[in-house]
Amino acid sequence: MDTLVEFLVSAAILVGGVFALVGSFGLARLPDFYLRLHGPTKASTLGVGGTIFASLLFFSWQEQALQLQELLIVLFLFITAPVSAHMLAKAAMHRQLRRREDTRGRPWKQ
Questions:
Q1: Crossing angle of helices 2-29/45-63, nearest 10°?
Q2: Cα–Cα distances in Å, from 89 out to 32, 78, 84?
């Protein structure tokens, strides 16, 4: 049974690392602020979530009890990441930050 848990922990770390890497590339390579915002909020959030899930699985198996600290971290991460991305996008729209023409979504004309 230890081998199965080690395999699951390794898989979760690997998946989390791949998502974090893709999110980092998105942050570095996408052309404007609005497109760059998706990298850290989507892929990197899943990357950190996968890594913390691996930590939850490993330490819960080692101590034979559910570790609530990791669950609270994941809950806080999944709640705050979309809210902070929304606030950053609203602030950028309020400041009329330049964007590419093919970026979807336009601010309302008043």
A1: 160
A2: 12, 17, 9
pLDDT tens for each residue of 58-71: 998 988 888 888 88
Number of H helices, E strands in the chain: 5, 0
Burial of 1 (0-12, 13-18, 19+ CB in 10 A): exposed
Amino acid at the residue 20: A
Q: CA triplet 42, 48, 52: central angle to 5 degrees?
A: 140
Residue boundaries of the structural domains of the chain: 3-94
Strands (E), 23-92: none
SS3 40: helix
Can you tell me the distance from the alpha carbon of 68 to that of 89, in angstroms, rounded to the nearest whole number?
32
Neighbour-count burial of 19, counting CB atoms closer than 10 A to its CB (0-12 exposed, 13-18 middle, 19+ buried) = buried
Tens digit of each residue's pLDDT (9 = 90 or more) over 85-104: 889 888 988 888 777 776 66
